[in-house]
Specification:
With about 240 residues, the protein is α/β, with parallel strands linked by helices. The protein is built from eight helices and nine strands. It has helices spanning about 1-20, 45-55, 70-85, 95-110, 135-140, 155, 190-210, 215-225; strands at about 20-25, 35-40, 60-65, 85-90, 115, 130, 145-150, 170-175, 210-215. A seven-stranded mixed beta sheet has the order 1-8-7-2-5-3-4, with helices on both faces. Strands 6-9 form a two-stranded parallel ribbon. The longest helix is centred in the last third of the chain and has 19 residues, at about 190-210. The protein is globular. The two termini are about 25 Å apart. It holds the Pfam family Acyltransferase. This is Lysophospholipid acyltransferase family protein. It comes from Streptomyces chrestomyceticus. InterPro entries: Plipid/glycerol_acylTrfase (IPR002123). Keywords: Acyltransferase, Transferase.
Length: about 240
Amino acid sequence: MFYQVLKYVFLGPLLRLIFRPHVEGLEHVPPTGAAIIAGNHLSFSDHFVMPVIVPRRVTFLAKAEYFTGQGIRGRLTAAFFRGIGQIPVDRSGGKAAQAALKSGLTVLRKGRVLGIYPEGTRSHDGRLYKGRTGVAAMAIKAQVPVVPCAMIGTFEAQPTGRRLPRAMRITIRFGKPLEFGRFAGLDGEHAALRAVTDEIMYEILRLSGQEYVDMYANEAKAQQQAPRGLTRRLRPDRGVRSSD
């Protein structure tokens, strides 16, 4: 009930007024049944703008920190994210990553729409970064279609560090659903997971027109912030990274 009131009475109309979204390809989102919407992640606003546009309820995996804040503000934030159907995810890796996969699969097995950002975190510079393979593991395991989605303009409207978005028009593009039945039973094979993830990321790239960087976003950001001469070794990661 809270989700519907927020989407259609309060937050939805406000976001439409601020962003005046131009939407393309919405017909590609399946009207029924389980599906994954996999998108680029440029802004905190992405959490809300895309679900407002999609007729069906979209459940996202959100970082656990949104649910553990202290004080009145922390409790209100946690209540808000629970109210809109976000699922807290521990981003520490290892067993936490497996727990995130299970949470996502639970949503899909209920026939719902799961929203996920394969990059694992917001882009700090507006470019598209290498996808993590958790999205592929869920798509193969649950045998559900993946709808690629591109947010265009939200980085300019609300880049990382900006608390309130600028009022400006954005574009949201949905691509044709991707099916991965040919990979059935291979959700434990890294080569298959990488191939599926790269196919998804290519479609997001094609829709968004972003510059692509073959590196994980959090690693690129760490290298950018590190003192000169200090580098950080890249490590393959098949876990699910919640939105940041």
